[in-house]
């Protein structure tokens, strides 16, 4: 069949990853729960808020890298808590220094504390500076297809439109915009923010997203470690369903068994 999809590796900045689930490291009860949940998720890429988490900038304090060693995980520093381009660029440069020249970063520039919606104007400014500075930029953005296109044109290696507002667990609020982004994008598209449960992650993957990034959906679950494992399976199921191609939707019933050759 001409429309059969064949899988392709999930690649970022020249590296190939087996897991298509990226997870955050905040909001857990303690470092041990963080470690156990991320192990259960099967994630290979973990994102770290440099402004909120110690990865070496505060000597003498517990260091996240002691439980999530860079030899095992790809650390994805992010600019959570930044509200303008200058702050975001400074934070990425600090992360590169702390991680010995590590260039892979997640850019997010927020508009306000209430919604944590991305400030796309400042995001575009920061992306231009960071790309020119040699960073491999994965970028959190709105679900506006035009902004997603501009960020890719600037040179971001992946665009990460929100499914819903950060921490809300509302799932994919605007699948139509996300579908346009997926159809147009020439770089990987990852859903970021708004996932609440396993079915949300599966739907994102069924739509054709390369991967999903989440934090609150796991960390705020009643059983975070169990939810992390659920998310691992949800991502795999969604990817397989995308590749398999779903049956067409029909208004009326269609018999499961053949109608031809019935005994009369």
Automatic annotation (TrEMBL):
In this protein, the active site sits at 106
Keyword hit for Manganese: no
Binding-site list for 1-deoxy-D-xylulose 5-phosphate: 167, 193-194, 215-216
User: What UniProt keywords are attached to this protein's entry?
Assistant: Cytoplasm, Schiff base, Thiamine biosynthesis, Transferase
**InterPro entries in alphabetical order:** Aldolase_TIM (IPR013785), Thiazole_synthase_ThiG (IPR033983), ThiG (IPR008867)
Outline the extent of the Thiazole synthase ThiG domain. Answer: 12-258
Localisation: Cytoplasm
Q: What is its EC number?
A: 2.8.1.10
What pathway annotation does it carry?
Answer: Cofactor biosynthesis; thiamine diphosphate biosynthesis
Does this entry carry the keyword Metal-binding?
Answer: no
SUPFAM superfamilies, per this entry? ThiG-like
Reaction equation(s) it catalyzes = [ThiS sulfur-carrier protein]-C-terminal-Gly-aminoethanethioate + 2-iminoacetate + 1-deoxy-D-xylulose 5-phosphate = [ThiS sulfur-carrier protein]-C-terminal Gly-Gly + 2-[(2R,5Z)-2-carboxy-4-methylthiazol-5(2H)-ylidene]ethyl phosphate + 2 H2O + H(+)
User: Subunit arrangement?
Assistant: Homotetramer. Forms heterodimers with either ThiH or ThiS.
Role description = Catalyzes the rearrangement of 1-deoxy-D-xylulose 5-phosphate (DXP) to produce the thiazole phosphate moiety of thiamine. Sulfur is provided by the thiocarboxylate moiety of the carrier protein ThiS. In vitro, sulfur can be provided by H(2)S.
Q: Which HAMAP family match?
A: ThiG
Which family, according to the similarity comment? Belongs to the ThiG family.
Protein's recorded name: Thiazole synthase
Native organism is Pseudomonas rubra
